[in-house]
Design goal:
The chain is mainly α. Helix 3 crosses helix 4. The longest helix is centred in the middle third of the chain and has 29 residues, at 39-67. 80% of the residues lie in helices and 0% in strands. The protein starts with a helix and ends with a helix. The chain has one domain: Four Helix Bundle (Hemerythrin (Met), subunit A) (Up-down Bundle), CATH 1.20.120.580.
Length: 142
Amino acid sequence: MVSKMDEKRILSKLDELNSYLEELESIKPAEFEEYASSVKERRACERLLQISIETVIDVCNMLVSQLKIGLPADEDEVFEKLEEKRVISQGISLTLKEMKGFRNVLVHKYAKIDDELVFENLDKLSDFERFKEEILLFLRKS
């Protein structure tokens, strides 16, 4: 059960996510060539993707804490715990693990950032919408 105070914090985070996604939608180029040719657009898209993913992870951590479902060993386990408690679906859990891995590449630049990979991820913004829908459905039920 999520308290009213924490529900407000979660909804506030989802609003924050909405604003990042709206900004990303407004600046993302339609074609890769346009994306690749503008350093400013590339960096803005990378940063907005990064903070959007971090916001998703924040929401997940808040839910795990509020639901008192154990201390996760790592971020992947956060998603697994939420999946086990049927807060999110298995599909979203897998998607979130992929998002987290992509965020790590953006943040830590394990390899030179692949512009094509970032551009491909701009077409996956619906994954964020699916995440929000599942969280809102859970909040309505609890």
